[in-house]
Design goal:
The structure is a single chain. This protein is mainly alpha-helical and 125 residues long. The chain has one domain. The longest helix has 29 residues. It starts with a helix and ends with a helix.
Length: 125
């Protein structure tokens, strides 16, 4: 029993360290996206286990939950591995909108007086 409690405490401490490490990463980091998805899946799995405890004494509902919860969790975890494979194979497809590359035609004016001068010149034509 003592070893089990030590394992649970160490796992909880590791999860807290993981969440802090994720929070400190930049938004565009693919590893942050992967670890965020992993943390969400672990949280959903723990929540499913906590919801099962009060539902077990209820006849009928426990059978539905025992069948439905693992199926939903299985689909949720499969989507994690599918998306993780995509993220790792193509790190540029992060789901974060990328700004368009700046070209001469689309570069912002350096200051307002230059933009006003350009508009005045165009109006004269």
């Amino acid at each position: 029993m003592r070893a089990l409690l030590i394992f649970v405490a160490a796992t909880a401490a590791l999860l807290v360290v993981l969440i802090v490490a994720i929070a400190l990463m930049p938004e565009r980091n693919p590893l942050k996206r992967l670890l965020t998805a992993l943390s969400l899946r672990v949280g959903a799995t723990v929540a499913a286990g906590l919801v099962a405890i009060p539902l077990e004494p209820t006849p009928g509902v426990d059978v539905l939950y025992d069948i439905g919860a693992p199926l939903v969790l299985l689909l949720y975890w499969v989507s994690f591995f599918r998306n993780a494979g995509r993220t790792m194979s193509d790190p540029d497809a992060r789901g974060v909108p990328q700004p368009p590359p700046t070209t001469i035609d689309h570069s912002p004016p350096q200051n307002r007086s230059n933009a006003r001068d350009i508009i005045r010149r165009l109006a004269r034509l």
